[in-house]
Amino acid sequence: MQNVFGYVRVSTGEQGKGYSLDGQRREIERFCANRNLTLLKIFEDQKSGTKLFERPGLVDMIDQLKPTIKGIVATESDRLSRDLFQFGWLTTHLSMHRVEIILINECRAESPSEKAFAKIRSVFSEFETELRQARIKRGVLLAKEKGRFMNRPPLGYRMVNKRIVIDEKTKPVIQQIFRLAGEGKSLRNISQSIGVSRSTVSFVLRNPFYIEKNLHGEHEVFLDRYLWDSIKAKIPEDSSASLAP
Description:
Elements: E1 2-9, H1 21-34, E2 37-45, H2 56-63, E3 69-74, H3 77-80, H4 84-96, E4 100-103, H5 112-145, E5 157-160, E6 163-166, H6 171-182, H7 187-194, H8 198-206, H9 225-232
Parallel strand pairs: 1-2, 1-3, 3-4
Antiparallel strand pairs: 5-6
Helix pairs in contact: 6-7, 7-8
């Protein structure tokens, strides 16, 4: 009986389309039981990351490989990667460790034509990913042209009828953060005075949204650029330290 790992992944928008994590797990567990394989662990990722560092489950699985592991079981090749070069690297890396990739719903490529078809399928899968990313970017650009903001506006602003407007309730908070920063207070002191996290204070002091009215569509700004530039240059790496004089 051979020891194997399982790997499951679902990207954004795939839930409910036959790619659920639970569905993949059941398929892998059933396959291993029928093939007399010892499934030691199933690793998972729940995002559409194309970079290895965006796939912690995949990286963790690779790091835990050892001589007793003989295979990686997944439902389809695109669960492991849609990127042709990344999938090629992964295949090579695993083969160097004498680990076989076992794809439940895809035939093992044996003949030259089958191997060629597998490469073609990977190319089309990669193309679909790039096409989807291009559509997303195009949607973001169109939204910017129409003055629409794709995310939640930062502190000091709010969304009204898909337009960003100044939030008069939180605007004074932003102004106070910059006033205290101008006085040389540390990020920690500002955080304690305002009642928000240090990371929020740091983000506010560095965020060009407050001085760039055309950064995402068009919105009104209420901070002076010179003040923002001068304070941003003083922000220390250590959030407990005072801002540079």
